[in-house]
């Protein structure tokens, strides 16, 4: 890491220090994270790479307040989340975090717009759900139910739902994992656009190495430890990715 | 152990909450069935066995006096198997432990051995020695009520003379299973005594040596009751016979039968409903439970388990739940049933009454619940197993959410998305919602049913004792007395007002149909007694002619305007013809009502009264009472409040226990249904709910989504359940003997409030239980998997 690195100068939004997560499975201890240190900086697009089982989801879930670490600290803009209880974590997620998952997790009984409005209703300063859908290119489909949308479209609704509350950070766990290449690109373009136009700090998990090319920062996990952090000078547009 | 059986046990332990509540629903259904049906069958069979053993007579008749030789005339009647002739008369018992003297009977025993019919069941002491004057047996209920023991003496007014009767033994009698004076509808063990004395010592006091005035007959199998009664009447008529009557009209038995008929309604209809509801719920709940295992069934099939192996797996699951529920229900039902039967022994004096668990009853209960559960579970399992595994491994196609009518109307614009989830879910799953609503409604209806009897009783008490009878004290005379004698009562200390009433025992005859009953004569400007109909309106006593209970008119086949033959069953036993001038739809009893003056005119008698009704000053009553007791011609003195208190202490207690038990069961069922609905909804929606939590929804907010659906179901179910309950109550009330009670089904507001309240409380408890699960929702786990 050099001082000239542009990302270094930005404010740290989320930071993890010596994060350890172990799962007790009967007699056996599974070490999902073995002392992870990392920073997520304001406005950056971070890609978290690693093989299946390397601890990516565990890390992201802890950063997003969905789970708590066995030891180590997580700090959000100076606020220590390590000791937060369930209620405080809920408030943290509610106010600051947007999530996107591999399996879109839309509510089947609500239309696209309603799925987005669901979050807008509980947010302090949301954008209009229709604007959020426009942003992901689904304005005309706002009255469709999830069952009437393709996988890629559902994932974009999920992104619209995540960004509509104007979150501080957007955390995406394998957002293209269930999609074909072409649709995957479309979804990545949407994330890129959100990061660029709204300036939302974004972290994306993938085991798909080429996706790292659109990141400012690439963090690689191997067996529950950070094996490499790379700050990239030039980002490739999502449309230029191939895998 | 096979792995598949291990899965069974793990499933059971993992679905603990559901397994337990479903088991409890089965237990409640089975327990209600066993308790109620068992109590009824036990009482019914104990009674039958007791009557049989004690040789309870089939026909009874009273007369003035007949020589012993007439017995052989009776014995030669076609169809008569056995005749037992005896002396019986009314007595008064001025026992010190009572404020008012008790009334009672004295009955002769043959000088040696036992009577041929209506044999006594000796519980203590021994039969009186022949030839010892004033030795007697006493009725067990009276002895118990006054803690009398063998060797004690009791003052008894026998034919006008006070005697000191020594108790040699304490006995129960099939004629006095329900110990009450002839006219009583309430058991009154304190105030009703029966003494049995050897004939040779009793006869002289009544001038009945070698004669009898009371006879009982046992019929040959297949004999015609009516023919025998008619023949007996012909034989006894010259001796002042007042008409033979069957068991149906025997004072104690008619009450016992009436109670048993009431109980039969409670003991047959209600348990069926309970068991039916439990079975229905078991069916619904288990079929849903199995639907949740869709993916597992598919996997089992994919790895090579056959359809029957899968079916068997779920049969085992159901059996484990239903059988343990049944076992609990049978044990609980047997316990409650024997407690209830025990309670009835306070009420009906049967010896050795035991609760018996009929194995057929048990097997019906168990089979019904097993069958319902197996059908529900196996139907679901087969439906899933019939799908190609590849298809079954995917979740069931979500209901296609297209625009519905409500969407088109734009109705959703006004509600928040979270509430929309609730409304849409209900709208898109009408069958599921419908079944849940019906299940909860059934629980509500059972609660209504549980209270219908106590409501009816409360209404009866109020109608009879507040509206119809306005006196404080009832004084009955040994023989009809003049109006002047009634007036004189007003001079007693503490008596504010006195009014005479005439009651003539009669037999109504019309068109070959006859009925023994009584005509009540009301004074012209009577203040105290009124006739109240089922609508709680006062029915005026007609100026002339007789007003009949509507049901009595129906039995006799007469209508307003008809002439009716009326035979007086006392005094000179005149027969007159009376015009039916109106009918009264009274809630109970079968009788005639007339103006007193009309009654006197019709029977050509002096102005007399059979009883006096008093308004008293309660503060002065301690002074009134001894004076009343001193009067020579008084047969009995009864405070209305005493009857009410006693009735409340007895019947009301029974009712309370009944409705408590039923309510407990109903509440269990309500919790079982609501909780399981909630759990199934939770399983089906946990993914949605976890998503909401991830998006930042608070626990309370997601609870509202899930519990909102439940709340809607509960709120829909309450009115439906109340309607079903009212309907079932009507069906049950219709089973009671219309010749005794004709109460309309009138449920009180408290019953509605109660049913609604308990259901909502059950909903709340379920909600809290589910809420705990919601709080532990595995956010990450749910999101890891594809829907
Ligand atoms: N709830 C859990 N219980 C036990 N082990 C778990 C649990 N969740 C994750 N793991 C283990 O932790 C490790 C990291 O998992 P995860 O973070 O999901 O990996 P990735 O997302 O990189 O594929 C894996 O070995 C996994 O088996
Ligand atoms: Mg993962």
Q: Any overview of this molecule?
A:
The complex is a heterodimer of chains A (243) and B (787). By secondary structure, chain A is of the alpha/beta class. Chain A has one domain (2-11, 41-67, 88-240): Rossmann fold (3-Layer(aba) Sandwich). Chain A is built from seven helices and ten strands. In chain A, strand 1 (12-25) and strand 2 (28-41) form a beta hairpin. In chain A, helix 4 packs across helix 5, helix 4 (112-120) runs parallel beside helix 6 (151-163) and helix 5 (129-135) packs across helix 6 (151-163). Chain A is globular. Chain B has 787 residues and is α+β, with helices and mostly antiparallel strands. Chain B has three domains: 56-255, no CATH class; 421-467 and 643-787, no CATH class; 468-642, no CATH class. Helix content of chain B is 53%, strand content 20%. Chain B is built from 22 helices and 22 strands. In chain B, strand 7 and strand 8 form a beta hairpin. In chain B, helix 20 (699-733) runs antiparallel to helix 21 (749-775). The longest helix of chain B has 55 residues, at 640-694. Chain B is elongated and about 100 Å long. The model of chain B has no long low-confidence stretch (mean pLDDT 83). Chains A and B meet through helix 3 and helix 4 of A and helix 13, helix 19 and helix 22 of B. Bound molecules: adenosine-5'-diphosphate and magnesium ion. Adenosine-5'-diphosphate binds at residues 23, 25, 30, 32, 50, 52-58 of chain A.
């Amino acid at each position: 890491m050099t001082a000239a690195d542009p990302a270094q100068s930005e404010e740290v939004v989320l930071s993890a220090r010596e994060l350890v997560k172990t799962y007790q499975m009967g007699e056996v201890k599974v070490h999902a994270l073995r002392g992870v240190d990392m920073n997520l900086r304001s406005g950056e697009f971070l890609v978290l790479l690693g093989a299946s089982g390397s601890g990516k989801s565990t890390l992201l879930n802890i950063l997003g307040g969905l789970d708590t670490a066995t030891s180590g600290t997580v700090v959000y803009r100076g606020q220590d989340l390590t000791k937060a209880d369930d209620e405080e974590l809920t408030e943290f997620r509610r106010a600051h975090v947007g999530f996107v998952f591999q399996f879109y997790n839309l509510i089947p009984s609500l239309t696209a717009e309603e799925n987005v409005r669901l979050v807008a209703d509980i947010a302090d300063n949301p954008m209009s759900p229709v604007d959020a859908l426009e942003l992901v290119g689904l304005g005309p489909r706002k009255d469709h139910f999830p069952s009437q949308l393709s996988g890629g479209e559902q994932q974009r609704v999920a992104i619209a739902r995540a960004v509509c509350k104007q979150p501080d950070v957007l955390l995406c766990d394998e957002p293209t994992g269930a999609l074909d290449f072409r649709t995957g690109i479309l979804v990545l373009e949407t994330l890129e656009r959100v990061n660029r136009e709204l300036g939302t700090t974004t972290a994306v998990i993938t085991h798909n190495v080429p996706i790292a090319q659109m990141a400012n920062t690439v963090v690689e996990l191997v067996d529950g430890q950070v094996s490499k952090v790379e700050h990239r000078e030039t980002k490739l547009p999502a449309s230029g990715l191939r895998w | 152990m096979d792995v598949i059986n291990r899965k069974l046990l793990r499933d059971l332990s993992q679905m603990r909450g559901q397994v337990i509540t479903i088991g409890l629903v089965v237990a409640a259904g089975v327990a209600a069935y066993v308790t109620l049906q068992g109590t009824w069958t036990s009482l019914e069979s104990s009674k039958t066995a007791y009557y049989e053993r004690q040789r309870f007579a089939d026909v009874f008749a009273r007369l003035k006096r007949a020589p012993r030789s007439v017995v052989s005339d009776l014995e030669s009647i076609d169809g008569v198997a056995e005749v037992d002739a005896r002396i019986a008369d009314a007595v008064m018992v001025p026992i010190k432990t009572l404020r008012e003297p008790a009334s009672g009977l004295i009955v002769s025993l043959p000088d040696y051995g036992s009577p041929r019919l209506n044999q006594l069941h000796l519980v203590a002491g021994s039969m009186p020695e022949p030839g010892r004057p004033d030795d007697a047996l006493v009725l067990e209920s009276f002895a118990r009520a006054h803690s009398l023991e063998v060797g004690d003496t009791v003052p008894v007014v026998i034919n006008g003379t006070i005697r000191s009767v020594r108790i040699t033994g304490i006995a129960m009698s099939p004629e006095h299973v329900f110990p009450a004076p002839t006219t009583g509808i309430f058991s009154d063990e304190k105030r009703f005594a029966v003494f049995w004395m050897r004939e040779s010592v009793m006869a002289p006091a009544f001038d009945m040596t070698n004669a009898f005035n009371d006879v009982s007959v046992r019929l040959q199998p297949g004999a015609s009751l009516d023919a025998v009664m008619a023949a007996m009447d012909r034989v006894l008529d010259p001796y002042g016979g007042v008409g033979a009557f069957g068991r149906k009209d025997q004072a104690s038995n008619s009450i016992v039968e009436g109670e048993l008929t009431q109980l039969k309604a409670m003991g047959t209809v209600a348990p069926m409903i309970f068991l039916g509801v439990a079975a229905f719920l078991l069916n619904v709940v288990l079929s849903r439970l199995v639907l949740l295992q869709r993916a597992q069934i598919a996997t089992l099939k994919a790895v090579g388990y056959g359809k029957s192996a899968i079916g068997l797996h779920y049969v085992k699951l159901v059996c484990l739940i239903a059988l343990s529920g049944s076992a609990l229900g049978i044990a609980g039902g047997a316990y409650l049933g024997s407690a209830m039967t025990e309670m009835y022994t306070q009420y009906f004096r049967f010896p050795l009454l035991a609760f018996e668990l009929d194995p057929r009853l048990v097997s019906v209960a168990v089979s019904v619940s097993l069958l319902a559960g197996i059908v529900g579970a196996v139907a679901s399992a087969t439906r899933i197993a019939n799908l190609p595994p590849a298809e079954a491994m995917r979740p069931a196609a979500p209901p296609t959410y297209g625009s519905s009518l409500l969407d088109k109307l734009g109705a959703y614009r006004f509600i928040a998305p979270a509430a929309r989830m609730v409304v849409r879910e209900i709208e898109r799953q009408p069958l599921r919602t419908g079944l849940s609503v019906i299940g909860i409604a059934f629980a509500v209806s059972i609660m209504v049913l549980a209270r219908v009897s106590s409501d009816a009783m409360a209404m009866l008490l109020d109608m009879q004792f507040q509206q119809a009878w306005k006196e404080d004290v009832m004084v009955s005379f040994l023989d009809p007395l003049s109006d002047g004698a009634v007036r004189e009562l007003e001079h007693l200390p503490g008596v504010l007002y006195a009014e005479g009433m005439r009651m003539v025992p009669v037999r109504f005859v019309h068109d070959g149909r006859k009925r023994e009953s009584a005509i009540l004569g009301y004074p012209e400007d009577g203040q105290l007694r009124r006739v109240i109909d089922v609508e709680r309106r006062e029915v005026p006593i007609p100026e002339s002619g007789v007003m009949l209970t509507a049901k009595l008119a129906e039995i006799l086949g007469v209508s307003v305007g008809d002439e009716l033959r009326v035979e007086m069953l006392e005094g000179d036993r005149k027969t007159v013809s009376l015009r039916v001038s109106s009918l009264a739809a009274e809630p109970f009893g079968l009788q005639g009502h007339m103006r007193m003056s009309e009654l006197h005119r019709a029977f050509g008698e002096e102005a007399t009264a059979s009883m006096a009704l008093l308004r008293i000053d309660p503060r002065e009553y301690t002074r009134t009472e001894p004076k009343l007791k001193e009067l020579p011609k008084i047969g009995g003195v009864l405070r209305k409040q005493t009857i009410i208190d006693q009735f409340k202490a007895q019947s009301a207690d029974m009712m309370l226990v009944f409705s408590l038990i039923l309510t407990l069961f109903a509440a269990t069922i309500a919790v079982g249904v609501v909780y399981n609905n909630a759990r199934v909804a939770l399983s089906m929606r946990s993914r949605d709910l976890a998503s909401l939590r991830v998006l930042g929804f608070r626990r309370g907010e997601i609870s509202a989504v899930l519990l909102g659906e439940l709340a809607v179901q509960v709120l829909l179910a309450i009115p439906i359940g109340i309607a079903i309950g009212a309907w079932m109550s009507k069906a049950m009330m219709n089973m009671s003997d219309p010749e005794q009670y004709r109460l309309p089904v009138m449920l009180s507001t408290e019953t509605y409030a109660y049913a609604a309240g308990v259901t909502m409380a059950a909903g709340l408890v379920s909600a809290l239980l589910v809420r705990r699960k919601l709080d532990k929702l595995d956010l990450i786990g749910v999101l890891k998997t594809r829907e």
